[in-house]
């Protein structure tokens, strides 16, 4: 134990995107409850908001100038440049940070790094002589698909339109992550996501934001090959097991949540009457698609709370808000777990980012799925066909987008249709299982405890 009684000191390095930061921060909060000291490294320009109320989590900043505009003429080039800059920033600063911690009397025992940055392990093990744990912020099913490609048991370009992989349901090609069936727009990204496989044998621990009962078969398949541990869901504790009293929100935000307004507004609505709509922190839907969603929401006759980030606002039809004032509220960002757990929310229209998916599952909210890219397509497949907690809107081939009629039809179906009560009762079952995983002695709680104990014993032996 160190001087304030911490068992070990973990230096955590999340990839600096909202969907990667949230689950890493949440894992860190859980680790503190096991007596772990945390240094969380954020790689950032100055625009994030931090409300850290956890005494044993210290935040360190590695500054990144974030001058994306200067670095490429398209999204793919900008993405690659962003990645490179992060690699340079971490490589230049990590050793110094670890040294500073040692000289302040709190030597780092292990570096917990986002699996999207596998090169960190080389620095950690090779240069710093420390142990490293990779943290995967995607579904185990998605990791398994990438692993099949890495092993050559799934060939890209795909050779068939129907894919059969062990421990998974039959998949159509477009149920796979979009980088696999359509690498065209982002040629470098497939290499990047496949890169997560290169450390599976070398990393000292492999932690996944999922829970055993949610992905039972694929967890077994992975466990037979690699020493993985599921530690999720990373949804704040006060919405699952309620053991971390201060854990109600994500406390590092790239956008400022409009908490007061939307919760007050939800309070005025009837139970189960609101469709909560969000496409996460990155999606960039076309203007026509945004208009179809707006009209679909209007025609559904349901109340709706829609998160539209500032960069997307201009895509909303001009008179939309005045025409739907009674029934709708648009905010730039909200405290999503608080919203999803509000009694007024009846369903979640989502892009199926993994965090949104696992939050909705662990809060018992049925979904209307509208995957856009990346692993969202695979998450949607599981939401609809495996966990049976949602229905997917189908894109019109002719118009190459999801029409307002389809948005309206699917929302009505999930809110009040024939399947509504089945979806809701399935969702409530997952909510119970998520709570069980996080509760004392549950699968994820045990895995976190085992992880800490094994780092502790490695440390005391060295
Ligand atoms: N989120 C939030 N407020 C919002 C919208 C999203 O706090 O208004 C959070 C959400 O709870 C989730 C994360 O942002 O934890 C988004 O991650 P996800 O994997 O769902 O999607 P991504 O942004 O990575 O596409």
Automatic annotation (TrEMBL):
InterPro entries: Glyco_transf_N (IPR058980), UDP_glucos_trans (IPR002213), UDP_glycos_trans_CS (IPR035595)
A molecular function GO annotation: quercetin 7-O-glucosyltransferase activity
Domain Glycosyltransferase N-terminal, residue spans: 8-153
The keyword S-adenosyl-L-methionine is annotated on this UniProt entry: no
UniProt-listed PROSITE patterns: UDPGT
Keywords assigned: Glycosyltransferase, Transferase
Pfam family, one: Glyco_transf_N
Enzyme Commission number: 2.4.1.-
Residue span of region Disordered: 434-462
PANTHER family linked to this entry: GLUCOSYL/GLUCURONOSYL TRANSFERASES (PTHR11926), UDP-GLYCOSYLTRANSFERASE 74E1-RELATED (PTHR11926:SF1560)
Family: Belongs to the UDP-glycosyltransferase family.
Name this protein carries in UniProt: Glycosyltransferase
Species of origin: Coffea arabica
Annotated gene: LOC113735151
């Amino acid at each position: 134990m160190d001087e304030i009684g911490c068992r070990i000191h973990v230096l955590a390095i999340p990839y600096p995107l909202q969907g990667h930061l949230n689950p890493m921060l949440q894992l860190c909060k859980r680790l503190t409850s096991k007596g772990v000291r945390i240094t969380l490294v954020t790689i950032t320009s100055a625009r994030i908001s931090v409300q850290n109320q956890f005494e044993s989590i210290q935040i360190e900043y590695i500054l990144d100038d974030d001058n994306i505009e200067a670095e490429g003429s398209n999204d793919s080039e900008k993405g690659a440049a962003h990645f490179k800059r992060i690699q340079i920033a971490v490589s230049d600063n990590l050793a110094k940070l670890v040294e500073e911690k040692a000289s302040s009397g709190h030597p780092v025992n292990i570096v917990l790094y986002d699996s999207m940055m596998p090169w960190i392990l080389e620095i950690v093990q090779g240069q710093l002589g420390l142990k490293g744990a990779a943290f995967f912020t995607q579904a185990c099913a998605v990791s398994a698909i990438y692993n099949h490609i890495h092993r050559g048991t799934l060939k890209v370009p795909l050779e068939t339109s129907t894919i059969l992989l062990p421990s998974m349901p039959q998949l159509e090609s477009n149920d796979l992550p979009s980088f696999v069936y359509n690498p065209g727009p982002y040629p470098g990204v497939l290499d990047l996501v496949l890169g997560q496989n290169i450390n599976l044998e070398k990393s000292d621990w492999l932690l996944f934001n999922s829970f055993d009962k949610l992905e039972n078969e694929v967890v077994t398949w992975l466990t037979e090959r690699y020493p993985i541990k599921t530690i999720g869901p990373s949804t704040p504790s006060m919405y699952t097991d309620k053991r971390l009293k201060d854990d109600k929100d994500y406390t590092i935000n790239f956008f400022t949540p409009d908490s007061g307004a939307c919760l007050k507004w939800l309070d005025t609505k009837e139970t189960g009457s609101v469709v909560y709509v969000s496409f996460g922190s990155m999606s960039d839907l076309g203007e026509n698609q945004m208009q179809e969603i707006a009209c679909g929401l209007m025609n559904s006759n349901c109340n709706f709370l829609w998160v539209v980030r500032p960069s997307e606002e201009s895509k909303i039809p001009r008179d939309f808000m005045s025409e739907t004032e009674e029934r709708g509220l648009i905010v730039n960002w909200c405290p999503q777990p608080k919203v999803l757990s509000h009694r007024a929310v009846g369903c979640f229209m989502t892009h199926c980012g993994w965090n949104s998916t696992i939050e909705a599952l662990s809060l018992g909210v049925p979904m209307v799925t509208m995957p856009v890219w990346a692993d969202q397509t695979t998450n949607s497949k599981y939401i609809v066909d495996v966990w049976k907690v949602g229905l997917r809107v189908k894109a019109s081939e002719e118009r190459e987008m999801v029409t307002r009629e389809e948005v309206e039809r699917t929302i009505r179906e999930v809110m009040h249709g024939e399947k509504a009560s089945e979806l809701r009762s399935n969702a409530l079952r997952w909510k119970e299982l998520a709570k069980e995983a996080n509760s004392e002695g549950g699968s994820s709680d045990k895995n976190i405890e085992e992880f800490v104990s094994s780092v502790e014993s490695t440390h005391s032996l060295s």
